[in-house]
UniProtKB/TrEMBL annotation:
Upper lineage: Bacteria, Bacillati, Bacillota, Bacilli, Bacillales
Membrane topology: Multi-pass membrane protein
PROSITE patterns linked: MFS (PS50850)
Transmembrane domains' residue ranges: 62-82, 89-109, 115-136, 148-170, 176-199, 220-243, 255-276, 283-303, 309-331, 343-363, 375-393
Localization terms from the record: Cell membrane
Superkingdom per UniProt: Bacteria
Gene: ydhP_3
Matches recorded under InterPro entries: MFS, MFS_dom, MFS_Efflux_Transporters
KW Cell membrane (keyword) present: yes
Protein name listed in UniProt: Inner membrane transport protein YdhP
Organism encoding this protein: Paenibacillus allorhizosphaerae
Signal peptide: none
Main location: membrane
Residues in Major facilitator superfamily (MFS) profile domain copies: 24-399
Length: 417
């Protein structure tokens, strides 16, 4: 039997026509949509799951936390173990693994089996995201890498806007198992699309594992991951609690809150596409500008949340800013990754999930303190300001290293970077 490496020895990305390239990128975006929807599903189904399986709501909430931990810790390990396998074959294998996890969730008779299914899907999640980001960059036309990554990333924003709410609706109407089954069936359709449209690619990780680990453990790379943690974390300090803010401070009805969340999602989609387009032109200004707008918009939300019209406008700008930084952060990570591109991208997905968890935790601490719910947007803004400071430090180190390189090439003596 031929090995996976023998089956896919040729890199056919250069043979892609314009339509095939676009179709492949859209198929990757569909996969991201499916994965993002699956991750968010339990958030809208905690009550029916807890009632049917016979566990408390906080215990059911571990389906979200356990999944996030699976992405944070399992993704990088699996990425290291599979780094030398052909990319397309690995991508298809991971989609199958993701389907297995989803299928287990759909038929799980007990809570223990349900959470096992979630963890299985989570293990595939981190590596799949990493491969898809690098694949989007690889098959993009020259100079359009950021736009290609943003297009694939738009699948996640659509999952937030459409996938998760639709999954919650199906679960409430027809039982919580149906959305997991639908996601599994969609995953199979995506698998067929990936097999047909995405070109064969050999392993991109030619460096030894020790070399890759050395690369991703360098202070400059860790600093870039921390930029992601605090960038994503800042958003989720406030977004995790946006519903109670809109309900208790802005005094919106449940229906109006749904509309505002949709407006946030529309803003996030626009921000994601603009961030990708501008990253191809001026990466660092796009990243700094997006983070600054994010910090300012969340700080303003603590004021505008007392006025319905102003709150809606602020939420739209907030959504734009929050997702405008995703592609620049991805590209920044890949720039620092050397030959560890997919491991680095997987670690960045872990950093996003860690930021989400950290942000929710910080927001909860603020609510439980004497500051209370109105101070949550301010706390979110401060976390993002920390991300801006880390980004400035990263750029400073880049310039310092560049200066040291110039001094060394000119033979002017030793320079410690």
């Amino acid at each position: 039997m031929m090995s996976m490496r023998t089956m896919e020895p040729i890199d056919s990305t250069n043979e892609l026509g314009g339509r095939r390239r676009t179709a492949a990128i859209l198929m990757l975006a569909l996969c991201v949509f499916i994965i993002g929807t699956a991750e968010l599903l339990p958030m809208g189904l905690l009550l029916p799951i807890s009632g049917d399986i016979g566990v408390t709501i906080p215990t059911a909430g571990m389906l979200v936390t356990g999944y996030a931990l699976g992405v944070v810790f399992g993704g990088p390990v699996l990425s290291i173990l599979t780094g030398r396998l052909p990319r397309k074959a690995l991508m298809c294998s991971l989609i199958v693994l993701f389907m297995v996890g989803g299928g287990i969730c759909a038929v799980a008779p007990t809570y223990a089996i349900l959470i096992i299914g979630r963890i299985i899907s989570a293990l595939a999640h981190g590596v799949l995201f990493g491969i898809m980001v690098v694949t989007a960059k690889t098959i993009a036309p020259p100079g359009k890498e950021g736009a290609s990554i943003a297009m694939v990333g738009s699948g996640l924003t659509i999952a937030v806007i459409l996938g998760a709410p639709l999954g919650a609706f199906l679960g409430q109407q027809f039982g919580w198992r149906l959305p997991f089954l639908v996601v599994t069936l969609l995953s199979f359709a995506a698998l067929l699309g990936i097999m047909k449209l995405v070109p064969s690619m050999p392993s991109t990780e030619s460096a030894p594992i020790k070399g890759q680990l050395r690369t991703v453990s360098r202070p400059q790379f860790i600093l870039v991951l921390l930029m992601t943690v605090f960038g994503a974390g800042g958003t989720f300090v406030a977004f995790t609690y946006i519903t109670p803010i809109l309900e208790r401070i802005t005094l919106l009805s449940e229906g109006a809150i749904s509309v505002v969340l949709l407006i946030f999602g529309i803003g996030s989609m626009i921000g994601n596409l603009l961030g990708g387009k501008w990253s191809d032109r001026r990466l660092l200004p796009t990243l700094f500008g997006g983070m600054a707008l994010l910090a300012v918009s969340m700080a303003f939300f603590s004021i505008t949340s007392h006025n319905k019209a102003a709150a809606i406008v602020t939420v739209f700008v907030w959504g734009m800013a929050a997702y405008s930084i995703i592609t620049p952060l991805n590209i920044r990570v890949l720039q620092k990754a050397g030959h560890a591109q997919e491991l680095a991208s997987t670690l960045n997905i872990s950093a996003f999930n860690l930021g989400n968890a950290l942000g929710a935790y910080i927001g909860g601490l603020v609510i439980d303190s004497t500051l209370g719910l109105p101070a949550v947007p301010w706390a979110a803004s401060l976390v993002t300001v920390a991300g801006i400071a880390l980004t400035a430090w990263s750029v400073h180190l880049d310039r310092r290293v560049a200066g040291c390189t110039e001094i060394g090439s000119a033979g002017m003596g030793r320079c410690e970077a």
